[in-house]
Amino acid sequence: SSNQDLKDEL
Amino acid sequence: MNIFRLAGDMTHLASVLVLLLKIHTIKSCAGVSLKTQELYALVFATRYLDIVTDFISVYNTVMKLIFLGSSFSIVWYIRHHRVVRRSYDKDQDTFRHYLLMIPCMLLALFVHEKFTFKEVMWTFSLYLEAVAILPQLVLLQRTRNIDNLTGQYVFLLGAYRGLYIFNWIYRYFTEPHFVHWITWIAGVVQTLLYADFFYYYFESWKNNVRLQLPA
Questions:
Q1: What is the spatial distance between Cα B205 and Cα B212, in angstroms, rounded to a whole number?
Q2: Which ranges of B48-194 does DSSP label H, i.e. alpha helix?
Q3: In this complex, do B113 and A3 lie within 8 Å of one another by their Cβ atoms?
Q4: Counting beta carbons within 10 angstroms of the beta carbon of residue B68, is it exposed (0 to 12), middle (13 to 18) or buried (19 or more)?
Q5: CA-CA-CA-CA torsion sign (B86, B88, B94, B96)
Q6: In this structure, which of B12, B103, B122, B179 has its CB flanked by the most CB atoms within 10 Å?
Q7: How does pLDDT run across B28-62, given as a tens digit for each residue?
Q8: Complex ipTM more than 0.90, yes or no
Q9: pLDDT tens digits, residue range B95-109?
């Protein structure tokens, strides 16, 4: 799982 | 978005508003570490590089602009405002914060998800944010008398990342393959650095006495 799904976080 | 992350973002927003309120209203930055503010401005500058390239939501963009704007304006106030800068205690705020930046940048160059500029800078911002509070905590230990607004600022700033940990736990259980060790470890280290401050902050609140950190 790439960090992409963290990029919606601040 | 889940309640933990929303609460975390609102707590983070409250922390910058408390600090801006203190500096703008009473025109004083007594007890506030410029070094920590400069580190936070760098954290946001390196974390939000995607603000112009990737639109996620209005909320996401607005909050990024608020955090970027507030952190840089706080640095400007303390450095350049003719009244505020007189209350800056540069003889006490002596933490060599570039000694924090260099290891974080080196670590980001070796431990990251992908070796791209944006990803390394984003990872650097995670590591740097974990330790950015250190100059402020050192200054609080030195200045001893912590005014309420500064105490509330540090408390809210520490609490927001603690709420993010609950957000990551929630996402781990609700989203498949949601595993992000780098972010999790940085977030836990960041929150643990506040542990003793939280202890003395709750003690002073419980006993209704002025917050004092042991020397």
A1: 11
A2: 58-80, 98-110, 117-131, 134-143, 148-174, 181-192
A3: yes
A4: middle
A5: negative
A6: B122
A7: 999 999 999 999 999 999 999 999 999 999 999 99
A8: yes
A9: 999 999 999 999 999
